[in-house]
Specification:
Elements (H helix, E strand, L loop, with lengths): L8 H4 L12 H13 L5 E6 L5 H13 L13 H7 L6 E5 L6 H11 L9 E6 L6 H12 L5 E7 L7 H4 L3 E5 L4 H15 L5 H10 L4 H14 L8 H8 L4 H12 L3 H13 L4 H20 L11 H13 L2 H18 L5 H13 L9 H28 L10 H8 L10 H9 L11 H15 L6 H8 L1 E5 L5 E5 L2 H8 L4 H15 L5 E5 L6 H4 L17
Parallel strand pairs: 1-4, 1-5, 2-3, 3-4, 7-8
Antiparallel strand pairs: 6-7
Helix pairs in contact: 3-4, 5-6, 8-9, 8-10, 9-10, 9-11, 10-11, 12-13, 12-14, 12-15, 13-17, 14-15, 14-16, 16-17, 16-18, 22-23
């Protein structure tokens, strides 16, 4: 016969003593020592996100201070006081939800009860949950009592948003912060519950449930309850079944999607989204999980030393490391920005698929990112430069391997021959000739120094090889053209004030020093460099020579 009084797992396995509490060792030890030593405060503030043990520890504390036979600060659970408090029949413990009882009248009712001494046990404990919801008048009414309560009164205030509490309240409480629980702590607890309940579940499934709980033990137990109900009578709770129940996606899919986006493969990325939707996965969950994946890739790109602190499996960590090594930090940050904005848009939208497809296309096509945020514009620009650099390297490799035909050059002989083709009448453009004659084009130097010739031939790969940590410097130099001064020094000419200002403005000595040291490390000799901004209205070809045209040598490509 089916039990009609089923108790949810998070209620059934709520800790009854301090020793049962998981992941709160410092808080538990402090409260137990206060009880053992008799140095009990009169007001406590428990802060933290949902399901992290605030109310649970408050109730254990209420039982412990009134227990007739405490053991090492723990309530015995057997005396009449402990049983009465557990059954919510002890008048010494008053619990109020400030979310629905937030008026000054509700607080006055609490204050009135404070005036009565305990009928059983030593203390009267007042637990006010979601205390940040109280009105200003209610806080003011509580303030005096909280400052000077009777010796037998203890206030425990619990909140998820301590920033909304007045400083006058905060300063009168002992504050304890309940951070999110580690994935491993939740997973270990789930294994204990599964053992007691006879639930057969894969370790990988329990780890995903623990991760999905987002630091909340209560959420973890609720998700396990849901998965067990779905899988009832169907054998082992597997990882794939868990993903199906929660509408989630395997992390391997995220790695594949990341690769498509990185390669600007719009079709491949949209095909993955289509497959996810056909499998019935939940879009909001998919976007949230992909943001989490991108966050881990970003952290690994910033420093691979954080690998040990990430709560992911070894298989997932391996794919994340591979994605981090092939990407740029600015690229990862831009992806997170785009999908974070998407998360806010689709939460209450009826066009979730269209919005998600638009976001994926924006990831694959940086030129479409029209954000008005200056920081996001810079990230988009850096991403576009990365795409162009990769295309340039790819085209150069094809050119020198012979798979890409070299661009045709129009010679004077070819032009004359074209003009002499049958049926073509050649009409000299005298006005153009006169105009060209009036302009004095700069003349290519007869010969460049060996060092400058080397710089000219390697210019593209030199700029492309600038380390990722100097990515903005690379962007500035991409806007410059190499030329030569009258005394034979390297001259970088800019037609944009922003690019030039990075080398000619104030406090730019560090940039100039870095570039000269970088050139010396690549060329093998110290190369003096000068920088120049084009005069307004002038053009580079009319005033300077591009030294890349003065050399006839193959362009060196950077090995990745």
């Amino acid at each position: 016969m089916t039990d009609t009084h089923y108790l949810a797992l998070y209620r059934k396995y709520r800790p009854q003593t301090f020793d049962d509490v998981c992941g709160r060792d410092a808080i538990v030890r402090t409260l137990k020592n206060q009880i053992i030593s008799g140095r009990i405060g009169h007001s406590y503030l428990f802060c933290g996100t949902r399901g992290t043990g605030k109310t649970t520890i408050a109730k254990i504390f209420a039982r412990a201070v009134n227990c007739e036979h405490p053991a090492d600060g723990n309530p015995c659970g057997e005396c009449s006081s402990c049983k009465a408090i557990s059954e919510d029949s002890n008048l010494n413990v008053v619990e109020m939800d400030a979310a629905s009882n937030n008026g000054v009248e509700d607080i006055r009712a609490i204050i009135e009860q404070v005036s009565y001494s305990p009928t059983q046990g030593k203390y009267r404990v007042f637990i006010i949950d979601e205390v940040h919801m109280l009105s200003t008048a209610a806080f003011n009414a509580l303030l005096k009592t909280l400052e000077e309560p009777p010796a037998y009164a203890i206030f425990i205030l619990a909140t998820t948003e301590p920033n909304k509490l007045p400083m006058t309240i905060l300063s009168r409480c002992q504050r304890y912060d309940f951070g999110r629980l580690p994935v491993q702590t939740i997973e270990d607890r789930l294994k204990v519950v599964c053992g007691r309940e006879g639930i057969d579940a894969e370790d990988k499934a329990l780890r995903y449930i623990a991760s999905a709980a987002d630091g909340s033990m209560r959420d973890g137990l609720s998700i396990l309850d849901e998965c067990n109900a779905f899988n009832y009578g169907s054998g082992t709770l597997t990882y794939d079944k868990t993903l199906k129940i929660l509408g989630a996606v395997d992390t391997r899919v995220f790695s594949t999607l990341f690769g498509c986006v990185h390669r600007n493969d719009v079709k491949g990325a949209l095909d993955i989204l289509d497959q996810i939707l056909r499998e019935g996965r939940e879009l909001v969950q998919f976007v949230a999980d992909f943001i989490g994946y991108l966050r881990n890739v970003m952290l690994l790109k910033a420093s691979e030393d954080v690998a040990d602190s990430l709560d992911v499996s070894s298989d997932s960590l391996e794919s994340m490391l591979a994605d981090a090594r092939q990407s740029e930090l600015a690229e990862d940050i831009r992806y997170i920005n785009v999908f974070s904005a998407l998360m806010e848009q689709i939460r209450y939208s009826s066009n979730r698929r269209i919005l998600t497809e638009t976001a994926i296309i924006r990831l694959c096509e940086p030129s479409m990112d029209l954000s008005g945020d200056p920081e996001k514009k810079v990230l988009s620009l850096m991403e576009r430069v990365r795409v162009l650099e990769e295309k340039l390297v790819s085209d150069e490799q094809k050119l020198y391997s012979g798979s890409l035909p070299a661009p045709a050059r129009q010679t004077e002989e070819g032009t004359a021959a074209a003009n002499e083709r049958p049926g073509r009448v050649s009409v000299p453009d005298t006005s153009r000739q006169d105009s060209e004659a009036e302009k004095q084009k700069p003349v290519l130097p007869a010969a460049l120094s060996e060092d400058l010739s080397k710089v000219a031939g390697m210019w593209n790969s030199l700029i492309g090889g600038i380390p990722p940590e100097q990515h903005m410097l690379k962007i500035y130099l991409l806007g410059g053209k190499p030329s030569v001064t009258g005394d034979g020094h390297l001259l970088v000419v800019f037609d944009n004030f922003i690019n030039a200002d990075a080398f000619t403005g104030k406090n730019t000595e560090e940039n100039r020093k870095f570039f000269e040291e970088y050139l010396a490390s690549r060329i093998g000799k110290q190369i003096p460099v000068e920088y120049k901004l084009l005069d307004k209205g002038s053009k580079f070809p009319d005033n300077y020579v591009d030294i890349r045209k003065a050399v006839n040598m193959p362009i060196e490509t950077e090995e990745n």
